[in-house]
Amino acid sequence: MSNLFPTYNKKTINFQNGKGTYLYDAENKKYLDFLSGIAVCNLGHCHPKIVDALQKQVESIWHVSNLFTIHKQEELADLLVKSFNDGLVFFCNSGTEANEAAIKLARKHSGKFHFISFKQSFHGRTFGSMAATGQSKIHEGYGEMLSGFTYVPYNDLNALMDEINENTGAIILEVIQGEGGVIVGNNDFFEGIQALCKKHELLLIVDEVQTGVGRTGTMFAYEQTPLNPDIITLAKGLGNGFPVGAMIGKKKFATTFSTGAHGSTFGGNYLAMSAAFETINMINDLTFLESVKEKGEYLFNKLNEMKIEFPQITEIRGKGLMVGIELNNPVEKLVELLLDNGLIVGTAGANVLRLLPPLNLSYKEIDEAISIIKKAFSFYFLDSKVH
Ligand SMILES: Cc1ncc(COP(=O)(O)O)c(C=O)c1O
After folding, report:
1. Catalytic pick from 90, 91, 115, 122?
2. Could you give the count of Cα atoms lying within 13 Å of 8 in the half-sphere of its Cβ?
3. CB atoms within 10 A of CB 93
4. Does the Cβ of 96 fall within 6 Å of ligand 1?
5. Which helix (H) or strand (E) holds 197?
6. Among 145, 183, 326, 340, which residue's CB has the most CB atoms within a 10 Å radius?
7. pLDDT digits over 85-133, tens only?
8. Fold assignment, 48-283
9. Taking the chain (387 residues) in consecutive chunks of 10 residues, what is each chunk's mean pLDDT?
10. Domain residue spans of the chain
C-alpha cells in the first residue's frame, strides 16, 4: 500500500538509470525513451556536460536565496533574453509558477482582469494557471476559480474577436496545444491574434512550457509564427530534468515587477542555474536547432508512410520533435503494448499518442522506434483485429 496520494495513474515500472535516449529498469531491460519525462530531458538522460556542471556546483554552493546576487542567473538571463530579443527574466521552479508570474505581471501592468484563453489548453495546476486552463475537468471540485478567464475555441479567430471587450487585458495561448491533443495553431489564426492585440492593446502571453527550449526546432515555437509575445513562460526542458522555470517579459514591465511585487525562495538557485545554463548553451545553437527540424521531418515522413498500412491512423500532427499520432481508437492499450516492446511514449487525450523524444537522438534510434511502433500496431490492429 503506497503512502503517496493517488494523484497519478502510475505504472509499476521503476527505472533505475538512464543514459541518452535509453532508460533501464530493475531487471536491466532497456527502453527507448520517446517521452523524455514529458518534454523535459531534451538532451537525453544524464548528459555528461550537465552531470559535470551539476557535480561541480553540488560541491561548491547550492542555495543562498534571492537576497543575494547569483551571477549564474545573470548569465542564463543573458542567453534567454538574446533569444527573446529584449526582455527581463524571472526564475521560478515549474511551468505553473511561470504562468502564475505571467498572469500576475499582465494583470498588474494592464490593470484589466478579463483574460482570454483557449478551450483544451493546459497551463498548470495552481489557481491562476488552473483558471487559465480551458478544461472543466481540471477545475472540477475546487470551487471558485480565479475570476476573469473565458475560453474560446482554438484556431477560431472570429470567436476570439467576439470575446474581446473593454475589460480584456491579455490573451494566453500555446503555439501547439500539448496536453490538449498536440493541436497545431495555424498561421492565419496567429496573424489575426497579433493584429487584435495591437488594435485592442492586449498583452500576449505565449506558454512555451512544453514547446520551448528547442522542442519544435527553434528555441521558442512562436519564432515560427507571426506572433510577437509580450511574455513567454518556460519550464520542462529548461533544466533537462532539474526543476526550473522562467518567465520572460519585455523590458517595459520592469516597473510593474518592481521590488517586492513577486518572489520565490528557490527560484533561480545555483543548482537549477547550472543545469539550465549548460542545457541552454547546447540547445541554443542554430546547427543543433536545424538538426531537430530535420529529425522531426524524418520521423514525420516515416509515420506518414505508416498510414497506408494502418488506416487506423487518422492524422500525424506537430512540429519538430513534438508529434501526435491520432488514431480512430483509444490509445491506452497501445501505450502498454509499446512499453512491453521497449518504447516509452505518452498520450494527449484518449486517441492521441504523443512522441517527445530527446532532441539529440540519432536517426538509428528513430528507426528503432518506428520498427517497434510498426510491430505493436501490427499486433494490435492486424493480429488482434482491433479496428
Ligand atoms: C503548456 C504547459 N503549460 C504549463 C504546464 C505546467 O507545468 P508544470 O507541470 O511544470 O507546472 C504544462 C505541463 O504539462 C504544459 O504542458
Report:
1. 122
2. 6
3. 21
4. yes
5. helix 187-200
6. 183
7. 989 999 999 999 999 999 999 999 999 999 999 999 999 999 999 999 9
8. Aspartate Aminotransferase; domain 2 (3.40.640)
9. 94 97 97 98 98 98 97 97 95 98 98 98 98 98 98 98 98 98 98 98 98 98 98 98 98 96 98 98 97 98 97 97 97 97 97 98 98 97 71
10. 17-46+286-383, 48-283
Residue pair 241/213 in contact (Cβ under 8 Å)? The answer is no
| Active-site residue flag, 207 | yes
Which of 84, 149, 207, 381 is the catalytic position? 207
Q: Locate cell 500496431: which residue? A: 377
Measured in angstroms, how far is the CA atom of residue 154 from the centroid of ligand 1? 18
Other Cβ atoms less than 10 A from the Cβ of 170: the count is 26
The per-residue b/e assignment along 128-139, b for 16 or more CB within 10 angstroms, e otherwise, is bbbbbbbbeebe
How far, in Å, is the centroid of ligand 1 from the Cα of 306? 31
What atom of ligand 1 comes closest to residue 211's alpha carbon? 1
Q: Is 252 a catalytic residue?
A: no
Spell out the residues 6+ positions from residue 242 whose beta carbon is closer than 8 angstroms to its own: 50, 54, 271, 272, 275, 276
pLDDT at 123: 98
Superfamily of domain 17-46+286-383: Aspartate Aminotransferase, domain 1 (3.90.1150.10)
For residues 87, 116, 119, 128, the Cα torsion angle rounded to the nearest 10 degrees is: 70
- How far does the centroid of ligand 1 lie from the alpha carbon of residue 123, in Å? 5
pLDDT of residue 385: 63
